[in-house]
Amino acid sequence: MADQENIPPSGPPGYETSRYAPRQRTSYQGVGIRFVAILIDWIIVGIITSVINLPLTVRGATNYVVNVNNATGQVAISGGPSAAVLGWLGFISLAVPFLYFTLLQGRYGQSVGMMALKIKVVSEDGSPIDYGAAAIRTVLMVIDAIPYFIPFLLGAILIWSSDQKQRLGDRIAHTIVIKV
Fold first, then answer.
1. What does the radius of gyration of the chain's CA atoms come to, in whole angstroms?
2. Do the beta carbons of residue 111 and residue 102 sit within 8 Å?
3. What kind and span of H or E run contains 175?
4. Burial of 155 (0-12, 13-18, 19+ CB in 10 A)
5. Could you please report the per-residue DSSP string of 33-91?
6. What is the rounded average pLDDT of the residues 135-145?
7. Exposed, middle or buried: residue 91 (CB in 10 Å: 0-12, 13-18, 19+)?
8. Rounded CA gap, 137 and 96, in Å?
9. How far is residue 135's CA from residue 105's CA, in Å, rounded to a whole number?
10. Are 113 and 36 in contact (CB under 8 A)?
């Protein structure tokens, strides 16, 4: 019996226990603070993507040809970026956000926006997440962003309807967002 007295009390995920303090509920983070964090992140991702895409965009813009018919005054524009240039622009536009969120959250549990607001992604058991969980969260951000005319409305609804304030990416990756 004496050995059982030294076993620390346990609780459901999201609770911290201590021998000297009562259990405290983990501070799950809701829609408002997460929206501000993702807004900061998408501004950064947009800047990075624009800088990387700039040389391709300029190269594609030089391929346009404007023809003016002097007799009728009709203007015709032809040419434009090649399929290869458009392909690279698309690839970079997908790769940058994927790498940004996956690498930062996989390494630190936080993106820059999350760091600024002092929130963090952890596993449901409170341990740090790995790159796999970060990749799952990032890929499923596409679904969480539905409908695209009101970005992340589905993610917000899922957070509001979850006891642990989890969006789809969190539910599949078994992660939670907490205050640091």
1. 24
2. no
3. strand 175-179
4. buried
5. HHHHHHHHHHHHHHHHHHHHHHHHHHHHHTTEEEEE-TTT--EEEEE-S-HHHHHHHHH
6. 94
7. exposed
8. 15
9. 9
10. yes
CA 41 to centroid of chain Cα atoms: 8
Highest mean pLDDT among 20-29, 84-93, 150-159, 167-176: 167-176
- Determine whether 162 is exposed, middle or buried from the number of CB atoms within 10 Å of its CB (0-12, 13-18, 19+): middle
CA–CA dist 139, 155 (Å, integer) = 13
Rounded to whole angstroms, how far apart are CA atoms 20 and 171?
A: 32
Count CA atoms within 13 Å of residue 82 on its CB side. 5
| Owner of token pair 């509920």 | 25
Contact present, 113 and 38 (Cβ < 8 Å): yes
CB contact set of 128 (below 8 Å; sequence gap of 6+): 109, 122
Residue-wise pLDDT tens digits, 150-172: 888 999 999 999 999 999 999 99
